[in-house]
Amino acid sequence: MVLTFHFLCEGEKDKAEYTFIRHVIAECCKGETYILEASEGNRKLLPKFLAMSRAFNPGDVFILFFDHVESISGVPVPVLLHDISGTCSRYDVVFRYTTYYCFEELFLSYAGIESILGPGFIHYMPQVEAIQQDILSGKNYFKSRDLSVWRHLIGNGFNNIKTREKFSSILCTRLLQKTQGIFKLTKDSIGDCWIKSCSDMDKSKLGGGRVCEKCSYCCKDNTFREKLRDLDDNSVAKLGLPFSGIFDRTAYEGNPVL
Questions:
Q1: 224-233 and 16-28 are packed helices; what angle lies between their axes, rounded to 10 degrees?
Q2: Contact 106/235 with Cβ under 8 angstroms?
Q3: What are phi and psi of 195, to 5 degrees?
Q4: Which of 8, 119, 111 is CA-nearest to residue 56?
């Protein structure tokens, strides 16, 4: 029997998180059989998982890409993971899941972000580094830090930010909006420079390549696999197992986190 990898992404289909995961899977797949689904938001995550579980076979792998927040639809995340793990165990299916707080913090915590910030934003780097340290140490910077330093950058919507997830999303959007390259990151979309090899970029979108010449990205001229490896090694992703190894069963059996 052919073993299958079942991937469930919390994000909406074809938006930023799903697009990133889809490219990761396509890059790392070496002919394995897989299914990728989107739950279209965390409230539909459990029903979507239960529907997917009907196709499970012994030895299959289920990987959940989601925001490891405090609770989902009133259910504490540890309880939700316990229930999913129990179902996978009954089917004799390997279960893995991401442990980053939210998708945007993969990039907010990425050390390489300094290399791509536009000149109008580089002076924010000390504050970015403080947040990065908190993310990597497991501290909730949204509750413990004075975030008023970001009021000017974020603008009129600053007072309406009520959650850590919303803050990290808006902060990534603002920091990456004026870079040498296509590094934008919003809920709806992710820039091509994050998900493609430099050699595969559409130069017509980059001034015929003139933007690339000015690019200061630490992974400039690299493949997507190399960019992904750098993100694995230099962001909150390093606290789990690497994206670049999602099809490597021997690397994660006995360890549930990604």
A1: 110
A2: yes
A3: -125, 10
A4: 8
Q: What is the DSSP string of 63-109?
A: EEE----SEETTEEHHHHHHHHHHHHHHHT-EEEE--SS-THHHHHT
Report the relative pairing of strands 75-76 and 71-72 from DSSP bridges. Answer: antiparallel
Tens place of pLDDT per residue across the chain (258 aa)? 679 999 999 999 999 999 999 999 999 999 999 999 999 899 999 999 999 999 999 999 999 999 999 999 899 999 999 999 999 999 999 999 999 999 999 999 999 999 999 888 999 999 999 999 999 999 999 999 999 999 999 998 899 999 999 999 999 999 999 899 999 999 999 999 999 999 999 999 999 999 999 999 999 999 999 999 999 999 999 998 789 889 987 766 655 555
- Beta carbons of 188 and 14 less than 8 angstroms apart: no
Q: For residue 41, which of 72, 70, 20, 80 has the smallest C-alpha distance?
A: 72
DSSP percent split of the chain into helix, strand, coil, nearest 5: 55, 10, 35
User: Which residue, chain included where needed, has tokens 């913090």?
Assistant: 105
